[in-house]
Design goal:
Blueprint (H helix, E strand, L loop, with lengths): L1 H9 L4 E6 L2 E6 L5 E4 L15 E5 L22 H13 L4 E5 L9 H11 L3 E6 L6 H7 L5 E5 L4 H8 L3 H11 L5 E7 L7 H10 L4 E6 L11 H13 L6 E3 L18 H4 E4 L4 E3 L8 E2 L5 H11 L3
Helix pairs in contact: 2-3
The protein binds iron/sulfur cluster.
């Protein structure tokens, strides 16, 4: 912990360094630039002990009812005080970014405070995944400077989107246009038989409105989701292989098989790369996992180390 702390302090110019099996990984949370020195392979006892990225479900609450939703429907919300201490620990142990989600994170009563805390008190990159319909001008003004990146869910366009999210598509575009004035953003696109036909239009639109990334999320059979079918998976692979657009594509790990993936950190897998904290304060490998370790008084790293033993990593 002290070692990572010292490195972070030495590089307090928004540049964070993480040590792991891939080498020395430098990351600038303002620009999003990653720089990997893979000629240096730190020994295992020098690796940063926290996962590279951690997603945090601030609350299970949501005001939409998407048919593919995998979020638990029982009410749960994280304590602000516990969360700040967990962020401190993750930062000190080499985590480079935290992603707030839910449910819908804008329904977390202290969203503004927790984003401001993470930016002010840690060197973590702070991101948020949202459906965007609650991002009114006042909230955007208040969040300005307290987020480094926002992911907006946009499954399909026009009538497809409206049939899934039951919100006007024009309102979504209006809110994204307002959002881009304060922070870089990407689009999250759940791919299933209903949305796949909208991919071309969605990517063109995302490019035109200034997105930095287009994240493909093949639907999983989790929660209310039934999972992407085989025919749609094949169509998606063909679409990705034929893609020549300027907007960078990304894809969730579960959907990456058979696709041309560029991942310089491929040696950092499983819990070295990622962990999820749900709205009950349970740390898991991913948000889709049903089992994990409850974070107790000894803190998030203690629970994370128990999770590694549980998962035999
Ligand atoms: S998918 Fe997201 S926006 Fe839709 S109901 Fe679930 S939590 Fe809410």
């Amino acid at each position: 912990m002290d070692r990572d702390n010292n490195l972070s302090k030495t590089l307090k110019c928004h540049l964070k360094v993480r040590t792991g099996p891939a080498g020395l990984h430098f990351f600038n949370r303002i620009t999003g630039i990653n720089f990997l020195v893979d000629e240096i392979k730190p020994p295992i006892n020098m690796w940063s002990s926290a996962p590279r990225q951690v997603s945090v479900a601030l609350t299970n609450a949501c005001d939409l009812k998407c048919p593919h939703c995998y979020v638990s429907k029982f009410p749960a919300m994280l304590s602000f005080d516990k969360l700040t201490s967990w962020l401190d620990e993750l930062d000190a142990n080499g985590c480079i970014g935290v992603g707030f989600g839910g449910g819908e994170p804008t329904l977390y009563p202290r969203l503004l405070e927790i984003c401001a805390y993470a930016v002010r008190e840690t060197n973590l990159a702070v991101t948020m995944t949202t459906h965007a319909h609650r991002l009114n001008d006042q909230l955007l003004y208040e969040l300005s400077g307290h987020l480094h990146f926002v992911r907006v869910s946009m499954d399909g366009v026009g009538p497809t989107y409206e049939s899934i999210r039951c919100r006007p598509f024009d309102t979504l575009i209006d809110r994204i246009t307002a959002l881009k004035r304060i922070v870089r953003f990407g689009i999250n696109f759940v791919v299933n038989s209903k949305t796949i036909g909208d991919l071309d239009t969605a990517v063109h639109l995302a490019t035109d409105i200034g997105a930095s990334e287009f994240l493909l999320l093949p639907e999983l059979a989790v929660g209310k989701g039934v999972g992407i079918d085989e025919k749609t998976t094949i169509t998606l692979r063909k679409w990705v292989n034929a893609y020549h657009g300027s907007l960078p594509l990304a894809i969730s790990e579960n959907g990456a098989e058979g696709l041309p993936i560029c991942n310089p950190l491929s040696s950092e897998t499983g819990l070295v790369a990622f962990a999820h904290i749900d709205a009950s304060g349970i740390i898991k490998q991913t948000s889709y996992d049903t089992e994990g370790i409850l974070i107790q008084e000894k803190g998030v790293m203690d629970a994370f180390n128990k999770l590694k033993i549980f998962k035999k990593e």
